[in-house]
Every structure is written in C-alpha cells, then in structure tokens.
C-alpha cells in the first residue's frame, strides 16, 4: 500500500527520495508525489509511475523533503488526491486510514479551512496547522493532532522555515534510517538501503523528530524514549541484490525460481539435526507449546492458504484440533475464546492490518499463547506475538506471493512436528524421517521448476479464457485455492478453487469447453476418488489440465492433458504441487500482457482494512 520516504541530510535528498519511492513501488500505488524545502515549499505530484515524478523533479535540489506513493482509499487516483497534502507552508504524507476524518473535516471547515482533495490525509495537514495556533512547535503540534486521530497512520510532516521533519506511527509501518550525513524515515527498509543499514523500528504511538544530526522519539505515553535501550538500532542484513531483478524479467519470476534457496535458508534453522527443539519458535516456546491442546490459525490471502494446509498436518501428525480463520472475519465475529489455545498468525509482511488486528483481538480475549510465522523481522505482527518463527525467503517484491508461501509451509510443518512430539505421537525414528523429507525439499522443488517449458506451452491455451476451475482433495484442496488466487490476481481470469468432491454439488454446472479445469492429482489415498471427479468433468466436455505425480495412475486422452511431477512427496506434497500452479499463472499473465508484479488494484502489503 502507500509508501513513505522522508529525508533531511547534508546531501541533495531529491535522488534519495526518488530512489526510495522506486524501491517501494512493489507495495502497489496509483500516484506519487513529493514536497521539498528549497527553501520554500515545492510540491510535485503525478498520476502514474514514479518515473514520471522523477522527470518532474529533475534538476531540483533540496536537503529536506518527504515523498509518497499513494494507493487510493478516499478519492479516486488523481493528481488532486495524490500526496503530499498541504496547509499553508506545511506538507503531510500519510499511509493508513483516518476513520474520524469526516467529523474532523466538518470541524476544520467551520474553522475556515478549504479542502482541495477527497482524501482523509488533507484533514491531518489542516489539523496540524490548526494545532500550531496554540504553540508554534511542530513536534508538539503533531503530537496533539495525532492524539485526535482515530484509525491507522504513518505520517511524515515538514514545514517551511523548520529545520526538522516530524514523523509518527500508529498501526501502519514506519522506520527511521540513521545515515552518515543525515536522517531518514521510510515505510520499509528497502527504501533506505541506498543510504544506510542502521534502522530503528518505530512503535505504535511514537512521534519522532528528525534533524540532520539528531533524532528524538517520544512514545505513546508522551515520555521520551531512550535510544538504543528502548528502540534498538538494527543493522539491516538485506543486500542490494535481494531487491534487484538481476537476470529476471519480473520479481514474481525471480521469486518462483528462488524457492529452492529460500527453503534451504529457512531450513538452515534446523541444520542437520535428527530431532528438533521447540526453542525454534522462541525461548518461551517449550513451556507454551508443551501443553497446547488446540490451534487457531489467523491469516489472509495466500498466508491463509498455508494455514489451511497446516490444519491437515497438525491434525494428522499431532492429533490436535486446528481451525483456520480469515483474519478479517475473526476480528469482528463473536467467537468462543480459549485461553489455552495456541494462536498462530501467518503473514509474509507482518504488517497486514487485518491479521494484526485479529491477533490483538485474540489477546484481548485472554488468548496469550501467540506465535507469528512471518518473513519480516521486527514487523508489527512479530512484535505482537509471544513466539516467532522467521522464514528466510528474503524480500518478496512481487504482489503475488510465491516463495513466502512455500517457506511458510516449511515453518508450519516444523510446527506440526513439534506439536506431534509434545503430544507423544511422533517417535524419534518418524521425526527423523519427516525432517529428512523436509531437507530434501529444495532439491525436489528445483526438479519441479524444470517443468517450466511444458507449463509455458499450456499457458498459451488459457489466454482467451474467462474462467478456470482448480480442483484438489485433502491437503491439496488449499493448493487448488492458491492456484486459483494466483491466476485471478495476475492474469485477471476469474478462477475458483474447489475440493474435487464438491464438484457435483454445484460448480459442475459451469463446466463446458470454454472452462479449463486444472486438477492436482498426487498419488495418494484420494487419487481414485479424484479420478472419478475428473471423469465427471470429461463427460461434460470440460478440458482437463492435470498435475499428477510420476506414479499417479492417470492417463492422457483427448481433452485430458497431463504433466507429471518428478517425485511423490507424501505429506509435504503440497509444497511441490503449488510450484507448477505459480508458473502457470505467471505464464498466462505474460501471454495476456498484464503487469505481473503490480497487478491492477492490488497492493503488496495491505496495511489498511
Ligand atoms: O503479508 P501477508 O502474508 O499478511 O499478506 C496477506 C495477503 O495480502 C497476501 O497473501 C495476498 O493475498 C497476496 N497478494 C497473494 O498472492
């Protein structure tokens, strides 16, 4: 979603702002803008790509500025709604949603302020301006103004004639970068790697003042925060290569092909051990996990699908009931809290607003045993949970999640094994067999990636289709859901994932020659049942595309196309079977010419409701 970059430094910060926005492009946006002090306020905005803003900013020199990519919430994507928003010499950029903006707008209108946009952000600019009437101190004005905001925000503010930048966060990500020649702020670390690796993650309620040579932070209670005692300085381990495309055309392509190494890096956490310890999930894990008798998984999108796979593993291996809920539903429904339950939040970004709120909701109901499975250290969800497992997928830039999913699955399998051991259901020999299978995954995934040429040929046949159906059974049903999500989000083909046994209860009515049916057919106990379901499709003239195992007894025939994965992988088979579906979506999107990494209307990190 929206991206923020702010800088105050001895160098010309205009290229820093532009490069920072470029690095944040992956988050999803529809317009961009910046405000500079040189020495009066210059505001530049553009609808479209950061490159257009860069062209406008060419030749500008400044030492003090804020910049923004906007993903529209209040008001259409347009120049007048693009950030920064100004109020007499003061400019604000904002990520998040201000829920009480309508009341504040009314109040500010009555006080004489005129609004030139449809955004909630403009309210913040005028509110700070109004607050400055009582005291000319910008820092205090931001503190007082933000105290009146209801909702989520990360903001950066500058004012003509002021040496400082003021930033604040509540419910939306923001970090500070400590540079050699100045100080910076941004929505995520990738925007600031160009100038520094030393980062401070702000917490909810923090307001920070940035000067070229100093920073200060005041926390939610209004008391000064000690640096580094209370807000440690982290040395980012991201390398420039991690966020570069290198030899690839798209980030999604790069990230699909990085999966063997992402899995290997994640599995380094268990080394060559024959047995694992609950400590993998944090120091408090042995005690917390030992007595767990049920699990509740909370997540959104692709992360929700990894939770659905984990339910099969946890119930089968550990014999513990596991429910999986879409975070945006769980946070608002009346549920029955169980303080003994383990709550697992799964998130690539660690900043998804609904997932974060669902964890807070669970905690508020007395459910304190919380575990984050996340790809971003120091993210809000990681900090909110008592336990953590950090996947090592590296930065995922493409909006369509790929390597985050397979590494989440590896983490969740480790959790299932850990819970199975605590429940006394997994002996040392079985544990060692499961860990061996897990360690072989990078090699197995590499072999699946070699199927790309055949998948590419299939993709050509999808380009003129408007709908597609994905079928799976058992722990491959979530993989059917994930395949459908991938296809719809990047190729804009309407796709549904169904448990194959459910076909005759409704979706079979849709099947005809124009509706490709993609099926996952591993050689497991449900294969014969699945084959009957496929016959039902073929009998109605449906075209079948089947991803089978090497030894699945299914044969190609007219209208039934088969691609075989190199090996059958038992419980971990979903990790392999999702890969061809990722490749299929990627190649269909290429054929259709869509914007693979930044599909329309979507954002990478969904930091608003
Ligand atoms: O960062 P998260 O894992 O919490 O994100 C959750 C979803 O927004 C995300 O998985 C989304 O569904 C992806 N675009 C799917 O490819």
Structure description:
With 609 residues, the chain is of the alpha/beta class. It folds into 3 domains: 3-243, Glutamine Phosphoribosylpyrophosphate, subunit 1, domain 1 (4-Layer Sandwich); 251-447, Glucose-6-phosphate isomerase like protein, domain 1 (Rossmann fold); 452-592, Glucose-6-phosphate isomerase like protein, domain 1 (Rossmann fold), CATH 3.40.50. 34% of the residues lie in helices and 22% in strands. The protein has 18 helices and 24 strands. It binds 5-amino-5-deoxy-1-O-phosphono-D-mannitol (M6R). 5-amino-5-deoxy-1-O-phosphono-D-mannitol (M6R) is lined by residues 300-303, 347-349, 352, 355, 399-401, 485, 489, 605-606.
